[in-house]
């Protein structure tokens, strides 16, 4: 509930299992912990869970472990980053009241629990939404909706629990050495069909993507999700790894976000100018050797409900960019483009900065923050004074996931603090629509307003290149891109 970045999220997705899970082929969600999810009106959902499933401490997963966890995540004073994922549930604003429109501190909550959550018995609970929302079941495989054990719910310290988490997934936590490795081991009492046959798994944390790649080539790393730019040139990675490669499109987009809390970036013409000054085709061709696709829409087109080509500022038009910059009153000083230096982002972020400098005739510079943990801390604390690298890895297969968390006021990953009342209104109309198709139509209207506001800059769509070692005979990546450890078969 408090992790909204992919590095931690990938580990959490192995430590926990939710009500539903998403098949690797991108098809509709399948029940996992849920026995059934039923509704007659898309507003009241009755959820039954399978009996006999356990947390890693041996306690049984029951209905209250979902209800109490969701109430904890939604409760404003707890400060969970993913609290907005519970905003569909009746009573959310009672536990998480919004801050005043003019700014300032949010008022104290009227309640500690949402009236829309009710435990029926040990294996059944009801969820009443504030309005019908047909996409709600699709969201339930996201990590914000995972159950929490009584060890946490009965007064556990969130920070301490985060250092030694207890989940209900196929792997359980062993140890975590910050900036070095997280060690996991198989949970032998796991009873669902995505069991892991591997005994132990170590997630290595690198400060440099090229160092990780060298470990992959030498056999000291068994799987690398994203091959660095340096190895893509001339298909070097294929020569290094032979047939131990994976090359698949994934519903993930790279983008650059604007800090709306910095007054320098509040003029929409400036934001449009920056976007139009970027030659996405040159970046994907020269930096990524054609392995990525220039972004032309706000949601990745692999996503259900997404519309291809709806980003009107994703074209390269330096003349129009300079005209818009003039209308914005120009830009003084150096425009800094921030990125985390421990992954393979230096080349393309420098290309962006150089293109903006050249095509707008201003000073621009790419600035590395050494570690992603430091980078994310600055983003979450709203401490960046320039545009910054971002990406969105689809949490669940619906275009709503590319709108609510990113562009709705208070969204869990709306880190730049963008806010537009019309976007919020159209989004809420979409979530209350009577069908998925009707919802998608409203979401499309909201995205069209986002396109006018330019809160961020879509740059490229991922085509993921991954590699694995000679120790692995078979492996698949999941629908979002990370390794699916339940598919791994070792050689020999």
From TrEMBL:
Lineage: superkingdom: Bacteria
Domain annotation Solute-binding protein family: ranges: 29-413
Short name of one Pfam family: SBP_bac_5
CDD domains found in the cross-reference section: PBP2_NikA_DppA_OppA_like
Gene3D superfamilies, sorted: Dipeptide-binding Protein, Domain 1, Dipeptide-binding Protein, Domain 3, Periplasmic binding protein-like II
Coiled-coil annotated residue ranges, if any: none
Name this protein carries in UniProt: ABC transporter substrate-binding protein
UniProt source species: Plantactinospora siamensis
């Amino acid at each position: 509930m408090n992790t909204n970045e992919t590095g931690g999220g990938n580990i959490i997705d192995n430590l926990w299992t939710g009500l539903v899970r998403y098949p690797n082929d991108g098809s509709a969600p399948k029940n996992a912990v849920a026995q059934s999810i039923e509704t007659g009106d898309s507003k009241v959902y009755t959820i039954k869970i399978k009996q006999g499933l356990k947390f890693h401490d041996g306690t049984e997963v029951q209905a209250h472990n979902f209800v109490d966890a969701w109430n904890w995540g939604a409760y404003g004073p707890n400060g969970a980053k993913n609290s907005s994922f519970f905003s569909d549930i009746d009573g959310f604003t009672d536990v998480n009241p919004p801050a005043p429109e003019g700014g300032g501190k949010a008022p104290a909550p009227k309640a500690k629990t949402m009236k829309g959550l009710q435990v029926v018995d040990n294996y059944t609970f009801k969820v009443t939404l504030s309005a019908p929302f047909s996409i709600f079941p699709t969201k339930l495989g996201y990590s914000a909706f995972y159950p929490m054990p009584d060890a946490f719910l009965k007064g556990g310290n969130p920070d301490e629990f985060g250092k030694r988490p207890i989940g209900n997934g196929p792997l359980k936590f062993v140890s975590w050495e910050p900036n070095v490795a997280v060690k996991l081991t198989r949970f032998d009492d796991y009873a669902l069909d995505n069991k892991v046959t591997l005994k132990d798994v170590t997630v290595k944390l690198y400060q440099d993507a090229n160092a990780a790649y060298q470990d992959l080539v030498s056999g000291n790393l068994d799987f690398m999700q994203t091959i660095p730019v340096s190895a893509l040139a001339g298909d070097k990675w294929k020569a290094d790894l032979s047939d131990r490669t994976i090359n698949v499109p994934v519903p993930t987009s790279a983008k650059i976000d604007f800090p709306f809390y910095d007054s320098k970036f509040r003029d929409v013409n400036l934001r449009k100018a920056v976007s139009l000054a970027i030659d996405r085709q040159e970046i994907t061709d020269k930096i990524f050797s054609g392995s990525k696709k220039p972004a032309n829409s706000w949601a990745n087109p692999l996503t259900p409900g997404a519309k291809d080509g709806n980003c009107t500022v994703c074209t390269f038009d330096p003349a129009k960019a300079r005209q818009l910059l003039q209308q914005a009153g120009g830009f003084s000083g150096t425009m800094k483009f921030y990125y985390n230096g421990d992954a393979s982002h230096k080349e393309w972020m420098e290309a962006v900065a150089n293109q903006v400098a050249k095509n707008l005739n201003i000073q621009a510079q790419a600035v590395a923050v050494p570690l992603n943990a430091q980078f994310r801390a600055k983003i979450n604390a709203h401490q960046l004074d320039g545009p910054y690298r971002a990406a969105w890895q689809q949490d669940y297969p619906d275009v709503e996931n590319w709108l609510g968390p990113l562009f709705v006021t208070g969204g869990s990953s709306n880190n730049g603090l963008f806010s537009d009342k019309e976007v919020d209104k159209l989004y809420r109309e979409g979530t209350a629509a009577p069908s998925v198709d009707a919802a998608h139509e409203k979401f499309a209207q909201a995205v069209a307003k986002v396109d006018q506001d330019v809160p961020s800059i879509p740059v490229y769509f991922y085509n993921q290149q991954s590699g694995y070692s000679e120790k692995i005979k078979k492996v698949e990546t999941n629908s979002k891109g990370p390794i699916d450890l339940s598919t791994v078969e070792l050689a020999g």
